Amino acid sequence: MTTSSAVVVGTGIIGIATAYYLAKTHGMTRITLIDRGQPMAFTSAQSGENYRNWWPHPAMVAFTNRSIDLLEEIARDSGNRINMNRRGYALATRSDNIDPLVTQLHDGLGSRADELIRFHRAASSDTYAPFVAPDWEGVPDGVDIVQNRALIQERFPGYDPEVQTVIHIRRGGDISGQQLGMYMLDFLKSVGVKRIIGDVTDIACDDGYTTTVAGPDGDVTLRSDYLINAAGPFAGRIADMLDVTLPVYNTFQQKIAFEDREGAIPRTMPFSIDLDGQQIAWTAEEREMLLEDPEFAWLAQDMPGAIHCRPDGGDAGKWVKLGWAYNEKPEQASTTLPLDDNFPDIVLRGASRLNPALTKYIGQLPRAMHHYGGWYTMTEENWPLIGAMGPPGAFMNCALSGFGTMAACAAGELCAALVCDAEVPDYAAGFSLDRYDDPDLMDVLRASSKGVL
Ligand SMILES: Cc1cc2nc3c(=O)[nH]c(=O)nc-3n(C[C@H](O)[C@H](O)[C@H](O)COP(=O)(O)OP(=O)(O)OC[C@H]3O[C@@H](n4cnc5c(N)ncnc54)[C@H](O)[C@@H]3O)c2cc1C
């Protein structure tokens, strides 16, 4: 039991999860959560809410596996209030040379790789476990690599018939991030944690922290022993208040969701990623017009892979979600979001390549289509920053990029353990600012793929 006090800046999923594990594991309940808006209302409201344990480095595999363990614990304890399911991540390619991907899987899975990777090369396979039911329990771990077109068509009937290989990551699916946040907030409220609305405008550090908050009724100052920066896209600005520069930047990413009235996407389809780059299938006339306009010519040229699609709203629902994180331009984060009106058409056309039935919607997306987006706050190497941040007692839990929903539990648990000087897992050191003093690790990370899904 600790009587120290903490201020947590940010009530997105990362600030909430940090407070949750401070209170639940370490008994620290003198916590004040501060946010300029309602909980879970900024980046955390825009998440695709997908999770997986597929990463090119064993530290990220261990970190997300730990987070998924904690999510499963919450699903079990709450009667699956977080709507966790597990049909996996299906990565599709028209190539039969997947050596670089298999190497990447081996790098991530380490010594257990041979045991966890299963190849299926015949037209039927008794060892390729079905994914008809959404349940997260009783599903195998590891990866099924399917390299037979007939088997692919049987299991993924909506896919482009040219797909030659499907790499099916089995520990993956989606959850309700909002319900996760609310479950944790209910617990925090029950143990007396306070929450105030206002803009953090200044933080002073002496033998503790004095945080100034511009609230609806004027400025309020708060004293605390610890200061935790979970300000998402504004984490850099909070760090600046303590004269700390964080190596983070923001890129804007978008998604669309719409009612699949035509039943184009099978409800049992796993979260599906088209790995192959493509040129969007514009008509010859459209292509010519795009190429003539310097602002839009890029749309008629080679586009990267990793466009993704999944059913949304459960097996009885009708909605689908599409996303494509092709934007890599670093930008200053803002609270008004720079949605691109062309994005829905671009992502729909791109996703139609893997799921040809989606072409029915080109030029006629339902009017109630939801187009949304948010900031990926990231480091160049796309690893999070969790740990000490400058003066003693200040901590950061940020740069969760496109994986903050799935990693929230492990990130919150780790940050809470560091604040309370408790034992931490092996991956802790790599997520701290100390990693920049390890050139070998940084070389490995910069060389590996960004995986921003
Ligand atoms: C389009 C999109 C799709 C995504 N899909 C997935 C996915 O499928 N799976 C996955 O795991 N992750 C996904 N993510 C990533 C995930 O959503 C984020 O990593 C996560 O939500 C970050 O949470 P956070 O708490 O750090 O940030 P936020 O949710 O942004 O919370 C930070 C909070 O800090 C507050 N704040 C900042 N500065 C101040 C200040 N000065 N004063 C007061 N309050 C302040 C903000 O108001 C905000 O509420 C996606 C992200 C985007 C944008």
Provide a brief overview of the structure:
With 453 residues, the chain is an alpha/beta fold. Helix content is 28%, strand content 24%. It has helices at residues 13-26, 58-77, 99-109, 113-116, 149-155, 177-190, 235-240, 284-292, 343-354, 404-419, 428-431, 439-447; strands at 5-9, 30-35, 50-52, 89-93, 117-120, 143-146, 165-169, 172-174, 194-197, 199-205, 209-215, 218-224, 226-229, 249-259, 271-274, 307-312, 319-323, 370-378, 385-388, 394-398.
For this entry, give a set of tags:
453 residues; FAD/NAD(P)-binding domain; D-Amino Acid Oxidase, Chain A, domain 2; 2 domains; 12 helices; globular; binds flavin-adenine dinucleotide
Explain this structure to me?
- By secondary structure, this protein is an alpha/beta fold.
- Helix content is 28%, strand content 24%.
- The strands form 4 sheets. The chain has a 9-stranded mixed sheet with strand order 5-6-7-4-15-16-17-14-18. Strands 9-2-1-13-20-19 form a 6-stranded mixed sheet.
- The longest helix has 20 residues, at 58-77.
- Bound molecules: flavin-adenine dinucleotide (FAD).
- Flavin-adenine dinucleotide (FAD) is lined by residues 9-15, 34-37, 41-44, 46-51, 199-200, 230-234, 253, 255, 373-376, 398, 400-406.
